[in-house]
């Protein structure tokens, strides 16, 4: 049983949930700040279920539509579908169940989440097709992940969001877009030669690795600036500033590794540092909400 669970978890890269989930939970905490960041067990559990289902749906679809390219790429040839460890029918079943799970969780959250759930499924799945026709595939992935904080916020507030809430929600979503653009460009460096020779498109292929890395650095600096603006809108103080400093150091280190180290280091830069960024953002945001700005410089 544990081996089966592990296989399916690896199939959808369940560990990578750590990228989107903290931003959804941070948005949830901000939306529930009148109750010190806690929306109640029911809402919390439904947000978790919706997030897991959304990501499982997106990754299942990605593995399905990319299976032929994955089989030809030496880096991905051992993935479950091209290696025959999981059948195509089982993958489609997982996709359908996770999509249905997202819709069901949204139904029990509130009407606006339910009505928007099919749109969310379309957006998170559509990304997997974009590398076939646009160089800006990273932007589409960013938009897909940016649905996480928007969904977390709407799950708590529904349609009763204020103008200030909408502004904060959009700034945070845009920060996530630029964050994804930056680290997805770095990740795409691994497949530069394969993508270029097989007609798959990305900014790395279009601009070359050096120029694409410069664009990734700019995207990450814009992301950091938007997170700073988010803190200003919410009137966060010292804890949040400490978190922003840690995030900045992590971003700089990620780009140093991408430029100075071999491609074998990219997975470390990609996973560990970006996981740290999302978790740090969650921790300091929750701290500010729970203590209601109690962290002050005196």
SSE order and pairing:
Layout: H1 2-11, H2 17-31, H3 41-65, H4 67-72, H5 88-109, H6 111-130, H7 137-157, H8 163-188, H9 192-198, H10 203-207, H11 209-234, H12 238-260, H13 266-290
Helix pairs in contact: 2-3, 2-7, 2-13, 3-5, 3-6, 5-6, 6-7, 7-8, 8-11, 8-13, 11-12, 12-13
Task: Provide an overview of this structure.
- The chain is an all-alpha fold and 298 residues long.
- It has helices spanning 2-11, 17-31, 41-65, 67-72, 88-109, 111-130, 137-157, 163-188, 192-198, 203-207, 209-234, 238-260, 266-290.
- Helix 7 (137-157) runs antiparallel to helix 8 (163-188) and helix 11 runs antiparallel to helix 12 (238-260).
- The longest helix has 26 residues, at 163-188.
- The radius of gyration is 19 Å and the shape is globular.
- The chain starts with a helix and ends in an 8-residue tail after the last helix.
Gist?
By secondary structure, the protein is mainly α. 78% of the residues lie in helices and 0% in strands.
Keywords:
single chain, 298 residues, mainly alpha, 13 helices, 78% helix, 0% strand, globular
Helical content stands at over 70%
- Taken as a percent bin, the fraction of beta residues is under 5%
What structural category characterises the helix and strand content?
mainly alpha
Enumerate how many helices there are, as a single number.
Answer: 13
Strand/helix succession: HHHHHHHHHHHHH
Radius of gyration: 19 Å
What's the story with the biggest beta sheet? none
